[in-house]
Amino acid sequence: MNFYDLRVEAADGSMVSMSNFKGKVVLVVNTATGCGFTPQYKSLEEMYEKYNEKGFEIIDVPCNQFRDQTPGTDEEIHEFCTLNYNTKFPQMKKSDVNGENEIELFRYLKSEKGFESFGSGIKALGMAAMLKMIDKDYKNNPDIKWNFTKFVIDREGKVAARFEPTIDMKKVEEFVASLI
Q1: For 134-159, what is the mean pLDDT?
Q2: Which residues pair with residue 7 across a beta bridge?
Q3: Rg value, the chain, Cα
Q4: Any alpha helices (H) in 52-140, and if so which ranges?
Q5: Which GO biological process annotations does it have (predicted)?
C-alpha cells in the first residue's frame, strides 16, 4: 500500500482518492476549531494560496479526539474555517486519527512517520508535560499527539516529514517550499 492507494471521505460524503494528488506536494493535517493551535489555519491558508498553483495541496481532516475541541458538525466546522480564516483548501469529514476508529489515511501516515519530538520552546515543554500525565510512554508510539499534527507527502507519494503542532509554521513552510 502507498499514499495514492488511500481514499478519504469528504465532508459532503463523497470519497476523495489520494491518487488525485499524484505529482503534487501534499500536506495532511488533523485540525480543530477550538484549540490553542487553531490560528495555524491562517498560516495554512497563506501557504495554500502561495503554493497551490505550483502543485501544493492541503488535506484538512477535522478531529474531535483531543479534549473535544472540534464539537461541531462538518457543516459548522467548514463555516467556522471559511468565515474566520477564509480557507479554500479541501476539508474532509470529521474523523478519528487514533484508536480503533482511526481512518486508514492516518494509520498509514503514522506507520510511515512516527513521533519524533515537539521541538523546543515553551509550547513544546507544555505539550510534553501535558502528555506525560496522559500517557507516560507517549514518545514511543506513533499516535497523533494533538490537533494540527502535519504530514508532508512529496511529489512521488512518499511521506517526507511529520511536524507536531508545536513546530513553528515557518519551518513547515520552508520544508514544503523545498519540495515545490
Answers
A1: 93
A2: 17
A3: 15
A4: 74-85, 104-112, 122-134
A5: cellular response to oxidative stress
Please state the pTM of the whole predicted model: 0.95
Percent helix / strand / coil, the chain, rounded to 5: 40, 20, 40
Segment 124-140 shows an average pLDDT of 88
Which pLDDT score, from 0 to 100, does residue 57 have?
Answer: 98
Domain of residue 84, residue span: 3-179
How deeply is 27 buried, as exposed, middle or buried, from its count of CB atoms within 10 A (0-12, 13-18, 19+)?
A: buried
Q: Which of 59, 88, 93 is nearest to 76 (CA)?
A: 93
Q: CB-based burial of residue 145 (10 Å sphere; 0-12 exposed, 13-18 middle, 19+ buried)?
A: buried
**Which residues lie below 8 Å from residue 175, measured CB to CB, with a gap of 6+?**
152, 160, 161, 163
Q: Which amino acid is at 92?
A: M
The question of whether 35 is a catalytic residue gets the answer: yes
Residue 67 has pLDDT above 90, yes or no: no
Query: Is the confidence at residue 71, as pLDDT, over 90?
Result: no
Domain CATH number, residue 121: 3.40.30.10
Pairing between strand 56-62 and 25-31? parallel
**What is the number of domains present in the chain?**
1
Annotated catalytic residue: which of 35, 109, 153, 176? 35
Position 52 scores a pLDDT of 97
Dihedrals phi, psi of 122, to nearest 5 degrees = -60, -45
Q: Write down the pLDDT at residue 134.
A: 84
